[in-house]
Amino acid sequence: MSNASSPNTPALPKVGFVSLGCPKALVDSEQILTQLRAEGYDTAKSYDGADLVIVNTCGFIDAAVQESLDAIGEALNENGKVIVTGCLGAKKDADGDDIIQKIHPKVLEVTGPHAVGEVMQAVHKHLPKPHEPFIDLVPPQGVKLTPKHFAYLKISEGCNHRCSFCIIPSMRGDLVSRPIADVMLEAENLFKAGVKELLVISQDTSAYGVDVKFRTGFWNGKPVKTHMTQLVGALGELAKQYGAWVRLHYVYPYPHVDQIIPMMAEGLVLPYLDVPLQHAHPDVLKRMKRPASGEKNIERIQAWRAMCPDLTIRSTFIAGFPGETEAEFEYLLDFLKEAEIDRLGCFAYSPVEGATANSIDNPVPEEVREERRARVMQLQEEISKKRLQAKVGKTLRVLIDDVDRNGGVGRTYSDAPEIDGVVYVKPPFEPHRKLAVGQFVDVRITAADAHDLWGAAE
Ligand code: SF4
Prior knowledge:
Layout: E1 14-19, H1 23-38, E2 42-44, E3 52-57, H2 62-78, E4 82-86, H3 99-103, E5 109-110, H4 116-126, E6 150-154, E7 156-157, H5 168-172, E8 176-177, H6 180-192, E9 197-201, E10 216-219, E11 222-225, H7 228-242, E12 245-248, H8 260-266, E13 272-274, H9 282-288, H10 297-307, E14 312-319, H11 326-339, E15 343-348, H12 366-389, E16 395-404, E17 407-411, E18 423-426, E19 440-448, E20 453-457
Parallel strand pairs: 1-2, 1-3, 3-4, 4-5, 6-9, 9-12, 13-14, 14-15, 18-20
Antiparallel strand pairs: 7-8, 10-11, 16-17, 16-19, 17-18, 19-20
Helix pairs in contact: 1-4, 6-7, 11-12
């Protein structure tokens, strides 16, 4: 069997794999094998050719339990270094003891089913693989562009809308939603790997599942629809188990978004709603060909805040869209004064090549677009200052992103990484209690400006 090593490179560590059980266990086996290969481990076809053996077990009926126990015994006799995963790994006997540990105490590690991350941790511990920069396709920690404590979870690709300023659908095509079980498994793996904040992204999170007619999938043996509300519920429950945050981005204000707000009020997912509204005037929105009209947005926002008073709303707007009159722009300013959006980004319209908006009559001159953008940001500065000032004196949970000698920098539920504000945190008085990246701390807020907060860890 080839191990992809040249005479100049050391042989790759080899893992033997025994896969028992149902199709769900088979998928777990495939995922573990995929991860092993991605990290550069080789697989062995026999016990004596393996440096370590993984047995994926079944614990469903007595015969399957016996078959699994026999397979573990055989692997221990023939090889000696054995990691066990799968359903039997999670099973206890009548005395409440782990069945596998009791019968086969020499097994190195035992995990339950769907435990790719835990199995890989056990493999790293008992069969560390030296990093080979010339042959490894994936670094040992995996390819991640975010720090270890937060991660983006993409739930779909493409978009069914045709906003006139946007060329994403022509580049990425129509909406394709990922199966809900895949999304949930990825979320679970990320939480297991230490992610403390999961940021759900897509082009249009509210449309999740529309392309597959909200097909029913399965997660943890229970049916779950490929639908935004069910996904958010399942992600929130999962995050609760790991003490992690879930943050929703790109939520279009479709009617079913109202069902998400109570989940935010309950604390299942962060009370943070990123709704890209782009404008408020109905005629501008029509020219933009936006999904969900602007007419009821003020009422919606007020109703959401009544349901969830802590809700932070983030949105983006375009100033100087082709055809925007001064009156339409002032309508937007009035909307912003009333809506008091917590976190706001505003862009001067920029004609993207290929966007149909470029041919709309009466384009707004560039200096007017810029001037309108500045007026929005000036207004927003006042709103933001007022809303952040209201947090002074409160104690808020902060996720620490960075630490230095003076303390740390983190974010509250109101701040998404990179795009929102931060909290500058003084460390606790006791010298042994240092702040750490990825740690949650309760911070008493002492000061605020238009963007950021300052406070002391409690
Ligand atoms: S801006 Fe419009 S067309 Fe572009 S991705 Fe968003 S919803 Fe889809």
